[in-house]
Write a structure and sequence with these properties.
The complex is a heterodimer of chains A (472) and B (78). Chain A folds into two domains: 333 residues, no CATH class; 107 residues, Immunoglobulins (Immunoglobulin-like, Sandwich), CATH 2.60.40. In chain A, 43% of the residues lie in helices and 19% in strands. Chain A contains 17 helices and 16 strands. In chain A, the strands form five sheets. In chain A, strands 8, 9, 10, 12 and 14 form a five-stranded antiparallel sheet that branches. In chain A, a hairpin with a 5-residue loop joins strand 9 and strand 10. In chain A, helix 5 packs across helix 9. The radius of gyration of chain A is 32 Å and the shape is elongated. Chain B is mostly helical and 78 residues long. Chain B has a domain of 32 residues. Chain B is built from three helices and no strands. In chain B, 8% of the residues are buried. The model of chain B has no long low-confidence stretch (mean pLDDT 86). Classes of the chains: A alpha+beta (472), B mainly alpha (78). The interface between A and B is medium-sized, with 25 and 20 residues. The structure holds iron/sulfur cluster (2 copies). The site of one iron/sulfur cluster has 14 residues of chain A, from helix 14 and helix 15. One iron/sulfur cluster binds next to helix 15 of chain A.
Chain lengths: 472, 78
């Protein structure tokens, strides 16, 4: 009886965890379930798959709305343009996402795993295809047991063919987030796809096929870091899925006409349907287990059985550890309030930082081949490459000036500095100084770039001027 | 440990770390500024560097796995 109780702490016992963790895998054939939560999951899966496959095709302001253009080193997110030096914003956004996940875990347990994790979403899609091709759970098991004959080869080949085609399409869509998908499509159709683009399509496709077709729950159990540390965020008030042991036990098979009260039985008819439905192959009646991804398949499965037996639903249900013990559940508790406050503060500051980002940047790169040279006029000349970034939504014309060196003269190879919205302009700049004023080998000097139509758009970058030290 | 767990313990953490390392590396360095004399695309440099990093980090994971092993004989599991 001891381990039948929902464990007090969501963490498993360390030794049993280790032995279980590395025991041999049995193939799991999750039974298809229907019900309220299955409908929610289908809704989640279809929405997320829809977003994933459609997003690269959406245009915004004449270009792909979401494009992390790696070959061009520019990142477009709905009209905003980011450069590699904006990595800090990406880091902040990832930190925000992680924090949001902590918050929802404390509040609602592993909702993420059950409804939104890509591993769940693609596994559900693969399971759906498998069931259409191989049939329901019993047929699948029968097929696997029967010797290899033509029919078995045909069914298995069909399944893998469909899976692989879907995976390759997934890989192609994935690459379409990192290079313009229209160009990629044209390249594929005309058989001109670059070797590395093709490599990544196949790589991602293979990962999809392997993870959703073969590895499935093993990804959650052995590879997912979230699955390992989520228990630290869950407490007695977090939403979990649990079997109502008080009501269910003693379990036992019985005829539908039997009155459980008279026979001394609990509500669980020990049919094992909940175990068959579980995609990770565990028995929810053994208590809270780290393998449980909170998918709620066992709830739908059991509710169905309860309906057939004409017992009230909810023998397996969403609940909290406190409620299971007849105590009150506190939704608003210090942990939640602190997480929520931090989450709000972080969200506001990240978005404020992105919105207030200076839409102008200047990069000064010294010519690496020569330190300096003397011009025919006897001046000392340094050459720089300037990179001008216009992150604003409209084009600008800029003026460029230098300060910090006496009588320094700035010569550009263009007459008008004009940069389109979201573009980088590279220009070559020469700075000439009279050798008489040069006092040190290396002097500091500033380049200032200002938008002519909007003087508030200005940026100053330091450059170094190298020269011979006069008179020494 | 079974083969799958060993393989994933070596290649999977290495994969995550080399993705992070590649992102940081190439946000600082534009590969074309280093290889501008060669006829090679950015995508090729990103890819080769990533695969190389993955190999190196996998090697590190493999050594970790190797060093963990002798300890197992001292720990008793029930
Ligand atoms: S125990 Fe229930 S909720 Fe948990 S993974 Fe299995 S079916 Fe899903
Ligand atoms: S489906 Fe419900 S009744 Fe059947 S074994 Fe599971 S918990 Fe018991």
């Amino acid at each position: 009886m001891e381990d039948k109780k929902p464990a007090k702490s969501p963490k498993g016992k360390p030794d049993s965890l280790d032995t279980e963790l590395y025991s041999k895998r049995q193939k799991i054939y999750p039974r298809e379930v229907h019900g309220l939560f299955a409908r929610w999951r289908t809704f989640g899966v279809l929405t997320l798959l829809g977003i994933y496959y459609i997003m690269p095709w959406i245009e915004w302001g004449g270009r792909q709305a979401v494009l992390f253009d790696l070959p061009a080193r520019k990142f477009y997110i709905f009209g905003m343009v980011f450069w590699p030096q904006d990595l800090i914003y990406l880091t902040a956004l990832l930190a925000l996402a992680a924090f949001a996940l902590f918050f929802f875990t404390a509040l609602a347990g592993r909702l993420w795993c059950g409804y939104a994790c890509p591993q769940t979403v693609w596994t559900e899609a693969f399971l759906w295809m498998e069931r259409r091709i191989e049939g329901a759970r019993p047929q699948q098991m029968k097929l696997d047991k029967r010797p290899w004959d033509f029919t078995k080869y045909r069914i298995k080949a069909t399944k893998h063919f469909v899976w692989i085609a879907f995976s390759l399409y997934t890989g192609y869509t994935f690459v379409g987030y990192f290079m313009p998908i229209k160009e990629l499509t044209t390249d594929i159709i005309t058989l001109q796809i670059g070797g590395w683009a093709l490599f990544w399509v196949i790589f991602y496709g293979f990962a999809t096929y392997g993870n959703a077709g073969w590895l499935r729950e093993q990804v959650c159990i052995y590879m997912c870091p979230y699955a390992r540390f989520q228990s630290a965020m869950i407490d007695e008030d977090s939403l979990i899925i649990s079997y109502d042991e008080k009501r269910g036990e003693p379990r036992g098979a019985r005829k539908r006409s039997t009155d459980p009260k008279e026979s001394g039985l609990g509500s669980c008819i020990d049919c094992g349907i909940c175990v068959q439905a579980c995609p990770t192959g565990i028995d929810i009646r053994d208590g809270l287990q780290y393998q449980c991804i909170g998918c709620s398949a066992c709830i739908d499965a059991c509710d169905d059985v309860m309906d057939k037996m004409q017992y009230p639903r909810g023998l397996v249900k969403y609940t909290t550890l406190n409620r299971l013990e007849g105590k009150h559940t506190h939704i608003l508790r210090p942990r939640i309030l602190v997480y929520a406050l931090l989450l709000i503060a972080l969200t506001v500051s990240v978005f404020a930082a992105i919105i207030n980002r200076d839409p102008i940047a200047l990069d000064v790169i010294r010519d690496r081949n020569t330190l300096f040279r003397e011009t025919g006029m006897g001046m000392i000349q340094n050459v720089y490459t300037l990179k001008l970034l216009n992150m604003d939504q409209k084009p600008h014309v800029y003026s460029l000036s230098i300060e910090g060196m006496e009588n320094a003269e700035l010569k550009l190879d263009v007459d008008k500095i004009e940069v389109d919205s979201g573009e980088v302009l590279e220009i070559s700049a020469r700075v000439e100084v009279d050798p008489a004023v040069i006092k040190t080998r290396s002097s500091e000097m500033n380049f200032t770039l200002t938008a002519i139509d909007d003087p508030k758009l200005t940026v100053t970058e330091e450059g170094r001027f190298m020269g011979p030290v006069a008179g020494r | 440990m079974h083969t799958f767990q060993k393989v994933s313990a070596v290649f999977w953490p290495a994969f995550i770390v080399s993705v992070v390392a590649s992102v940081i590396l190439f946000s600082i360095i534009d590969p074309l500024s280093l290889f501008y004399t060669y006829d090679i695309s950015r995508l090729a440099i990103y890819s080769i560097s990533f695969l190389f990093l993955w190999l190196i980090t996998a090697l590190s994971s493999a050594i970790t796995l190797y060093f963990i092993y002798p300890c197992k004989s001292h720990v008793e599991y029930d």
